[in-house]
Amino acid sequence: MDTFGLLLQGFDVALQPMNLFWALVGSVLGTAIGILPGIGPALTIALLLPVTVSVGPVSAFIMFAGVLYGAMYGGSTTSILINTPGEAGSMMTALEGNKMARSGRGAAALATAAVGSFVAGTIATVLLTFAAPSIAELAFYFKPADYFALTVLAFTSVAVVMGTSRVRGFISLFIGLAFGVIGIDKMTGQPRMTFGVSSLLDGMELTVVLVSLFAIGEIIYVASRYRHQNDDIMPIKGGLWMTKDDWKRSFMPWLRGTAIGFPMGALPGGGSEIPTMLSYTLEKKLCKRKEEFGTVGAIEGVAGPEAANNAAAAGVLVPLLTLGLPTSATAAILLAAFQNFGLQPGPFLFTSNPELIWGLIASLYVGNVMLLILNLPLVGIWVKLLLIPKPQLYAGILVFAMIGIWGVSGSTFDLACMVAVGLMGYVMRVYDFPIAPILIGLILGPMAENQLRTALAAAQGNPAILVETPISIVILTVSALFLLVPVVLRRLRKAA
Amino acid sequence: MQNKETPSPAGVTAAGPEAAAPGARPWWLGIAVIILGCICLYATTTLPATAQYAAIGPGMFVTIAGGGLLLLGILLLIQIARGERFEAQDTENATGNLPMDKRAFFTALAATIVPALTMEALGLPITAMLSFTLVARAFGSNKTIIDLITGAILGSVCWFLFSRLGLQLGGFLPLAGF
Question: Global pTM?
């Protein structure tokens, strides 16, 4: 069957009343957590995971898609109205968006962000629809050595791109890899790194590590350096819609933002920070009214980065769905969610579980429409969430975090791990270590190990097998470039 | 040292050049990473060699992880010796270059330790009540009675809601036997 027919089937799944309901729940939750500080999409999905066991994979992933996209809509709202970007991807939106709100054009900024997210999300989903099956097809030819090379690429790119220092990025990654080997070795049945603790035989649960790092580490860190300051919420002025001129000025930035965001999101290590920054710089260069940038706020500077941010989020799904390769913290938890249901994303999922994949892709379209409706007219209600006092808000996050961890397996040992890993999360924030590489290492480490051992075993332990196929050579070369290019550039700059 | 006021809005502008690095030479960070590496390497010595095939056994990846951490720990020590700067991250509601509030830190830490001690014996609602109040206090709330009540209500509502959704959250009030 062709892609289009499969997509129609996907819509059949996504438009079932029950799944529409879950898409709505996900979109509402996603928007809410995007607006609230201290809680992001990865953490939300981790907390929802134990609950979704009873609803089945299709509905669960439709809800997660809503959370993923909704968080970005919510994030842009806070960036514009109170100048607090909730995540790295909305930092650029805050620059111009908040200026616009201050000069009484908040409504137009919110509208261009929401419509831009919608346009980018829809185009990116179309690209995903058609790109994913062909990449999945390619992946059939991948040998274990190629898969191993891919995981190496994901490792190096995540460790290099995220955070300020390569050494600290790699330390995070290797801590994740070390966490990943804890438990019973799947190939030989040997317990590893358990030190006689029976609770460790099943390994470190990704949910426990993620919730501890993101929620517990954040709560302790923010408490220790809490800024006692009331957010100053800009009233929404200037009608609820954009003028004809606003539309004209937003249209091209949306498209350009999408064109930058989607491929960069699909690349390992691309993330959302770099594409939004690129889009902002590009719009600033191309804009005819440069004087508006940084003064009254230029609408192009909101439209472009917002589109890039949303397109990048859809891009992240390409390597995840086709190769089973997560490239961000959110993608890592989505991969864990697949594994929770006994599914392994990758080329085989397209043939073994088309209902799930195409239902998920179709629900991305549905979610975008839903979010547009939820966010444009109702933004006044969403902003009310910011009135929750901070002490009680962070206290509530801790309650949800402990439920999330306790609910995984009802083990006091997990709660003790929560304290230890949470403290580590605190130290990482104080000394500026990136957190995502730990999660990528934890979830991809066992996959990398599996492929490496399979490849080596087939070659009687000869490591040359790892560079025998052209695919693996290319991918390993790119990984090496990720590592070396920044060093070489720095040397060259010093020499010049 | 910094004063309490921060002119920059949340997260948008980076900390100024005068940002106080927490502890000018945090040697212990590098040492901690090296210790982690050594723990991994030690763990490989307890694995039986019989499970190996052509030198590929369950210990190989542990050795890679441990060796990597050991090496990176040494690199980090070298960086620290050369005067590497560590600037605390800015996030929403927190500014990296504020001095650490030790009291708030320990109160929040206590809040996270409570669940491990009380969850099994006292159940979720009471644990939530205690942790909730401690975190709120760490963030400067002094309405203790209201926080206690809010925490207990939140914990109870969550217990009922998530139990209905199929989560195993233990007894509601194990002390009272249910």
Answer: 0.88
Q: What is the pLDDT of residue A317?
A: 87
Both structure tokens of A16: 């079932």
Same domain, B68 and B35: yes
Domain ranges of chain A: 3-495
User: Domain for residue B161, yes or no?
Assistant: yes
Q: In this structure, what DSSP letter does residue B145 have?
A: H
Q: B148 in contact with A at a CB cutoff of 8 Å?
A: no
Coil, strand, or helix at residue A114?
helix
Residue pLDDT, tens place only, B112-160: 999 999 998 899 999 999 999 999 999 999 999 999 999 999 999 999 9
Q: Are residues B64 and B117 in the same domain?
A: no
The total domain count for chain B is: 2
Q: Does B28 touch chain A (CB under 8 A)?
A: no
pLDDT, one tens digit per residue, over A26-37 is 999 999 998 888
Q: Residue A173: which of A479, A394, A455, A488 has the closest Cα?
A: A479
Mean pLDDT of A260-264: 90
Enclosing domain of residue B32: 27-81
**Of A72, A123, A73, nearest in space to A258 by CA:** A123
Residues B111 and B165 in one domain: yes
> Cα A412 from chain centroid?
29
Please report the residues numbered 58 through 97 in chain A whose beta carbons come closer than 8 angstroms to any beta carbon of chain B.
83-86, 91, 94-95
**Shortest distance, CA B59 to any CA of chain A (angstroms):** 8
The answer as to whether B12 is a domain residue is: no
Of A104, A83, A102, A103, nearest to A93 (Cα)?
A: A83
Whether B76 and B118 map to the same domain: the answer is no
B-facing residues of A in 224-263 (CB < 8 A) are 224-229
Closest CB from A170, A419, A431 relative to B72: A170
In a domain, B92, yes or no: no
Q: Is B140–A95 a contact, with Cβ atoms under 8 angstroms apart? A: no
Report ipTM (2 d.p.).
0.86
**B64, pLDDT greater than 50:** yes
